[in-house]
Amino acid sequence: MLVIKEERQLEQDYLMNVYDQLQERKIQLEALLAHARENGLSDVQQMLGDVRLNFSNISDNLDTYAALEMKNREIDQLNIKLRSAEQFLQKVDRLLVVPYFGKITVDFLEEEPQESFYIGVNGFANDLGEYLIYDWRSPIAELFYNNEMGKSSYVVNRQTIPVELKQRRQLIVEGQQLLNYFDTSISIQDDVLLQVLGSDATRQMQDITSTIQKEQNVIIRDVTHRNLLVNGVAGSGKTSTIMQRIAYLLFQYREQITTDNVMILSPNRQFVDYISDVLPSLGEMNPMNVTILQFIDHHLPFILEDEATYFNRISSKQVVQQTEIIRSHEFLETVKTADYLFKDASAFVQPLMHQGKVVISKTKICVFFDATPHDARLMDRIQGTKIMIRDEWQRRLKKQSRKPKMQDQMLSMSEDMQRKYFGKILGENAEKNLPHYAKKVLDQKYRQVTEDIEDLRWLDTSYLFKTIFKTYTGEAYAFNVNQPLSLDEGVVFLLIYQELVERLDLPKLKFLFVDEVQDYTPAQLNLILTLFPKARYTMVGDENQAIFNSTSAFEQIVALFSAFDLPSYRYDLRSSYRSTGSITTYFGELTAAEQEMAIVPIREEGAKPIEWQYQSEQEWLERMIEEAMNLESGPLVVLTKTSLEAETIRQQLSKLTVDMKKIKILPITLAKGLEFDHVVIYNASKLNYVSERDRRILYTMASRAMRTLLVTYQEAPSQYIK
Ligand SMILES: Nc1ncnc2c1ncn2[C@@H]1O[C@H](COP(=O)(O)OP(=O)(O)OP(=O)(O)O)[C@@H](O)[C@H]1O
């Protein structure tokens, strides 16, 4: 009699089978790599040994080079094979931890019977070419994330394939153990999602591959719209979506792009670190991931303010008017057309100096500039001038190198000096070549001058800045004397370089991702769009988290894209995954009236946020210590409005006997984008939180909490706390 195996047993058997095949492949790959490592070197030596080295005459030389070239190519091939075996092994290792997490059963509406597909972080085919696991980014996997039972479709090579989705199963798997599985029924309560969301926070962001939600999946896989603008409430997975989207694009366009063509602009340095594990865990390398401050600092030859100064500055209530002006889109557009202001070089060039002496005079540089075509663009004239200065300088060095004094110096040079300058002792024949060696000595001695010519030290770019500002406003721009440049000034300078002075050496970006886009000034966004006109953008943000004095509204961003003749497509994300239901409801009430109710909490209710009035700092400190000691997991994270508050608390705590690993104190500026299990808001009092911006600060703080939230205040609570 036939016994029908239980469904669960069938799944378990399939898993064991896949797991065994993965194991087998691991053993094969390890053996191959071990063999290559042990024998690789001798194999390579043998390969080279086959080539008879013969350099006795020219034609033999060519033969030998050709043969060496062939061998080199063979070695390259071998290396490529080894590298791909290593990558394959990494994939298999990843799959051995969790072979797959999803299964779909699909009816292709043809004669054939329905088919099942298992979905994992990577794909895997066995020796027979049977796909046992499909990569989550493969076309068919779209059906899993679309989550539409019954009639559905997916797209392959721009063709829509209609199908019927018969079954969608989420599996919780550990190695060869099937722990549980859930079939999606009509009313979906995503147990797997809830389980994932309920687990403790880690220091680093995790990937969300197995539980990507439908509305996130659409954004991750959108390759039809050139530029995406995502407005999502706190915790709606904007950053997660960016990371998954990068992995998706790297897979989808693997023939055309590498991580060198992708860049992420992150809100702060801690965040850069926070998201750095996600892509490697998906088997992809990290793309360039920097803050805008780091990016501009890297490309500008001036010193910029540091991150702490920057955040302090943008956290102040207001900025001076001149800063408002240089933050505007209009001012940046003015820079681009400022060419006509700079016809008279004597206003903006300066002499080239070396050790306090003029080496190339201002007059000489002006003559060079004047020799360039007067109707040419400023940039071309500057570049033409640079070539002339460079030639003049080389001519002078050459002339100097031929002078008898120089020759004498060369002849009396000690052996030590010869070694220092030439890396060797000059032989008998050197005398004939003395000018050549003298030139080398001069090149080294005056290399600073050569660098200064290349770095345009003879150009007063701040004059360009000030003149453009004066023309635009009628007023003088005042730089902070002896202070590094502010980021806002850096933005203008970088644009001046790119548009008027010298093209920057920029990466060839195909995709650029901007997180927390609401914190960018119009000028910063203008600069980014100007520097990377060919890139496709994904910008994500939340207007409710606009807590700085530097900000752009979403409408402004859309208008900016239009001003650049670029389309933008907007998505809204309303479901929030980070915090428990009651915390989500709590921070939802901190939004402006029109946004209220719009946030959909996904996690279970959890503990209600607690509001607590304290009488003195001492009382507050004592309670914090007690709370921290009572926690089972994670530190207690105290969020403050300013860095000064954070510093003061840190100092007070350091005088007490506290395990500082259990309490972390962060100003909200540095906690942006991050999340913590247990959050305390410091002094949310009536006096401390007054303005609309303060309301948004409270919203941002509260939405960092995953499990518990304690809102503390002295005297009366802020009007925004109901
Ligand atoms: N589909 C999902 N499955 C599992 N976890 C998710 C999912 N979407 C988001 N999360 C989790 O929710 C939390 C918030 O995600 P993320 O930081 O990407 O949101 P965000 O919109 O960028 O947040 P914020 O703007 O508040 O900083 C993270 O812990 C993330 O792992």
Automatic annotation (TrEMBL):
Biological process terms in GO annotation: recombinational repair
Domain UvrD-like helicase ATP-binding intervals: 211-580
Protein keywords: ATP-binding, Helicase, Hydrolase, Nucleotide-binding
Keyword Cell inner membrane annotated: no
Keyword Hydrolase found: yes
Gene Ontology molecular-function annotations: 3'-5' DNA helicase activity; ATP binding; DNA binding; hydrolase activity
Record GO cellular component, one term: cytosol
SUPFAM superfamilies (UniProt xref): P-loop containing nucleoside triphosphate hydrolases
Record Gene3D superfamilies: P-loop containing nucleotide triphosphate hydrolases
InterPro entries referenced in this protein's UniProt entry, alphabetically: DNA_helicase_UvrD/REP, P-loop_NTPase, UvrD-like_ATP-bd, UvrD-like_helicase_C
Protein name: ATP-dependent DNA helicase IV
